Amino acid sequence: MLIWINGAFGAGKTTLATELKTRLPDALDYDPEYVGYLLTKWVPAPESHDFQDLPLWRRMVAQFALGLWEEYQRPLIVPMTLVNARYRDEIFTALRAAGVPLLHVFLDVPAEEVRRRIVEQDVIDGAPQADDTREFRLRNVDRCVAARADLTADTLVLDGGRHTPSELADLVQARLS
């Protein structure tokens, strides 16, 4: 099973992923953002400066997830903001076509709460949050929160502003059962 945890920057994706990892110790962590970091070293940046706008990023994300799935036959936990419906469908269609079972989880958090979390967050992946990263995240809050309107019916939408990480993990595990 691939568990894709989606939502705005600051919605709690990484926190939920960490909680799920304690409950699914055999699961592999996969952060597609690192695919983007890799590409930004060698390919021209898109005009938007968002590596998700690179078709190669989307293909590589799906292929890497598929490779992990096929090679290790273990659950994958993927915390990644993916709000462009066309991009999401492109990646998810490729995974499903390859036979990867997929649970798409969307953490729904009000925009004002997301902004508060981004402003207060000092550390991302163990490193201080750079001002340009914070500004990128803040500029995209409304777009990320609005993505809820474009979700497919099979998406597990969870209230990330009301539930604790443990409660969210309980809800995800209940869907997996």
From TrEMBL:
* One Pfam family recorded for the sequence: AAA_33
Superkingdom of origin organism: Bacteria
State the name under which the record lists this protein.
Answer: TmrB-like protein
